[in-house]
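> forwarded from #structure-qc
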């Protein structure tokens, strides 16, 4: 139970409680009233699979509402965003009898999980299921590209590495490291699909740590211009280029391939993917619905959705009831984040007021001096069974995930735990260096510690 002082009642709510305790909004978050013995029997007989797709009545309004343009629901981990997205897709298919619905997310693994949940939800309604396609963003992009243009020659990361290496040899006096060149390509040139020197000269390099004056940019563009020319000569496109060309094609069409798109884990949608979705939705009512958590941004630097044609202002809502995370763990995690998080366009996600519907044990926290110490302690805490779960969890992260996957597999089988742990720490450190979000969280944690004057000798608290 929450502490008594954490719950307040308005006069109207108090009156409702006096007449019907279950009418209170706080009670409705925790209980569902069964109206008949038949409904009770169905609920008790329902397998666990059915409960995993249960939509709480408090979330129903966001599923059923008509939106005049793109809309987004946000919330911390465990507030039911994915379930809302799933039911939103089904609602659109049920109410728009001729409409086709795309339910998409950022990885194949997550898309497969959505497919399983969708089968549970509408397995006995094939007329609905056949009008809802579930793909990852990359998968639906490849499918639509091949349908529109006949063939797709994707430039792999290895292809780009080789082209950059060749271009660098032609322009040896630039003074940039290979890692810096690749980071600028992935984060700016390819991400924003910059095709000319003028575009690169004028672009705002959001989230980049080093400022580049015009002269330095010109040196870099000599390299990137060569890479773009060679990609064109080989008739290859990057994934960002694939989505950009698709967006241009959809803008010319009278009828889109999907009438509605529902996007889960939308915080990790990149610029080119959002441009594609904007062209797909074309600002039609109810055409785009997003579910995500600004605080779980992992793979993307923040950017303005509005500038790319997706304006959710006035249609952004935050889910405040957490069904999966205990009050104690959520409260501890909230210390690392601001109570209100805003995107680049000013849409706010308010963490203040979020409640958990169950309690658990108090977590233990430790203040460790460095990332290496932190990772070493993390590695020492894994059992072999937990490492098997960890391997599966990080399998989809790409090259970084494959590296960690290999190390944790060795750690699981190795009898020389100290050596394997050392390798795990080294691999994890490389991952932290390559992914911005963990480092940002680390810096945020240290700033909070300074602000709250946590003493240097603090080691562990309940």
């Amino acid at each position: 139970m929450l502490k008594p002082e954490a719950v307040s009642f308005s006069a109207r709510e108090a009156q409702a409680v006096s007449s019907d305790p279950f009418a209170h909004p706080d009670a409705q978050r925790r209980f569902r009233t069964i109206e008949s013995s038949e409904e009770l029997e169905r609920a008790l007989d329902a397998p666990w699979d059915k409960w995993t797709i249960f939509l709480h009545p408090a979330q129903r309004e966001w599923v059923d509402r008509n939106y005049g343009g793109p809309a987004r629901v946000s919330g911390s981990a465990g507030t039911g965003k994915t379930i809302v997205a799933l039911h939103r897709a089904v609602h659109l298919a049920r109410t728009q009898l001729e409409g086709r619905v795309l339910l998409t997310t950022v990885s194949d693994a997550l898309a497969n999980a959505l497919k399983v949940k969708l089968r549970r939800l509408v397995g006995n309604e094939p007329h609905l299921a056949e009008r809802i396609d579930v793909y990852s963003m990359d998968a639906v992009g490849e499918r639509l590209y091949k349908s529109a243009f006949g063939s797709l020659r994707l430039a792999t990361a290895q292809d780009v590495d080789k082209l950059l290496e060749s271009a660098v040899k032609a322009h040896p006096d630039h003074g940039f490291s290979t890692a810096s060149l690749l980071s600028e390509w992935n984060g700016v040139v390819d991400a924003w699909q910059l095709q000319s020197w003028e575009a690169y000269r004028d672009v705002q390099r959001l989230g980049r740590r080093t400022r580049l004056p015009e002269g330095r940019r010109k040196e870099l563009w000599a390299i990137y211009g060569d890479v773009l020319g060679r990609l064109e000569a080989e008739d290859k496109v990057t994934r960002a280029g694939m989505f950009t060309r698709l967006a241009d094609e959809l803008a010319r069409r009278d009828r889109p391939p999907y009438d509605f798109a529902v996007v889960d884990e939308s915080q990790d949608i990149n610029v080119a993917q959002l441009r594609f979705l904007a062209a797909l939705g074309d600002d039609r009512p109810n055409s785009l619905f997003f579910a995500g958590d600004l605080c779980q941004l992992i793979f993307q630097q923040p950017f303005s959705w509005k500038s790319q044609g997706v304006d959710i202002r006035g249609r952004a809502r935050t889910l405040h009831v957490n069904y999966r995370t205990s009050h104690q763990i959520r409260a501890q995690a909230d210390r690392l984040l601001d109570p209100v998080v805003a995107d680049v366009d000013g849409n706010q996600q308010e963490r203040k007021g979020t409640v958990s519907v169950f309690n658990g044990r108090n977590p233990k926290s430790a203040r460790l001096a460095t990332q290496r110490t932190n990772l070493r302690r993390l590695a020492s805490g894994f059992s072999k069974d937990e490492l098997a779960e960890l391997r599966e969890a990080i399998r989809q992260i790409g090259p970084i995930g494959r590296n960690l996957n290999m190390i944790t597999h060795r750690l699981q089988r190795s009898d020389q735990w100290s050596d394997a742990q050392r390798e795990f720490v080294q691999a994890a450190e490389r991952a932290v260096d390559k992914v911005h979000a963990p480092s940002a969280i680390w810096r945020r944690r240290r700033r909070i510690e300074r602000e709250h004057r946590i003493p240097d000798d603090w080691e562990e608290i309940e």
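QC bot note: DSSP finds 21 helices and twelve strands in the chain. Residues 1-18, 396-402, 410-417, 432-462 have pLDDT under 50 and may be disordered.
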